[in-house]
Write a structure and sequence with these properties.
Structural class: alpha+beta
Largest sheet: 8 strands, antiparallel
Number of strands: 13
CATH superfamily of the largest domain: Exo-inulinase, domain 1
Number of domains: 2
Order of helices and strands: HEEEEEEEHEEEEEE
């Protein structure tokens, strides 16, 4: 069948329009794909851990009080006390704080300070104005369910006792979710506390003052005493905001 010149022109026009339509569809899909990848990259980046200890020095930390932290074979080591280091660059809220540590023996005492409302000028100011997530699996100091690893020191009762034997590495994850604080040690929940929950009264002068803490604050690590040797190989934070 012979096609007229008019028919050929119509055919070519339709074919051109179809080709252009397909190109538009392809470009549209490409734009959607690029947007999706950008969002995915942004989400992945937001989920990354920010390392606060570089394994080399304490340039980004400040020592407060007696004793010190030293870097030994790429690890943070507590020496003497009672003092602390704190991270002054920013306040943290709505994050997970991950601390990987080991102890010389079960009676070694240390802790992770959270929700500090101001940069501390004294370690006791940190004790009384923030929360200390305890590291202590023994009885040399106080012992008991309110003074052991993973609790908010003297304020919450331990749900579990998952710290490993001395020399083994423990992973502590502290979730700051608004006014709620959740602590896991080696994957087991030890503390789940929300501001306003009932706490026992203060009965010892070295226990923290009772009262509310802020939703966000500075964080720190404690060097407790000369007999308590604790090593940290990771201190990291990750946002939980979506």
């Amino acid at each position: 069948m012979e096609i007229s010149p008019e028919g050929s022109a119509i055919f070519l026009l339709l074919n051109y329009r179809y080709t252009q339509f397909e190109k538009i569809k392809m470009n549209h899909r490409l734009i959607i794909f690029i947007c999706y990848m950008a969002l995915a990259f942004s989400w992945i980046h937001a989920q990354e851990w920010k390392q606060l200890f570089n394994g080399e020095d304490l340039a980004e930390w400040e020592q407060i009080g007696p004793g010190e932290f030293v870097v030994e074979n790429g690890l943070l080591k507590t020496v003497g006390g009672m003092g602390m280091i704190f991270y002054p660059a920013e306040r943290f809220g709505d994050v997970i704080i991950r601390v990987v540590y080991t102890v010389k023996d079960n009676d070694c005492n240390s802790g992770v300070f959270i929700r500090l409302p101001e940069k501390p000028w004294d370690p006791w100011a940190a004790v009384n104005s923030g929360y200390e997530v305890q590291i202590d699996n023994g009885t040399r100091h106080v012992g008991g369910d309110f003074h052991c690893t993973g609790v908010l020191y003297s304020l919450t009762r331990a749900i579990a006792h998952p710290q490993k034997a001395p020399g083994e590495w423990n992973t502590m994850e502290i979730i700051l979710d608004g006014q709620r604080t959740i602590v896991h040690v080696n994957g087991e929940k030890v503390t789940d506390f929300t501001e306003g929950d009932q706490v026992p009264p203060k009965i010892r002068d070295f226990e923290p003052d009772r009262g509310p803490r802020p939703a966000s604050g500075y964080i720190g690590l404690q060097n407790h005493d000369s007999e308590s040797i604790v090593y940290f190989k990771e201190v990291a934070v990750k946002s939980i905001k979506q």
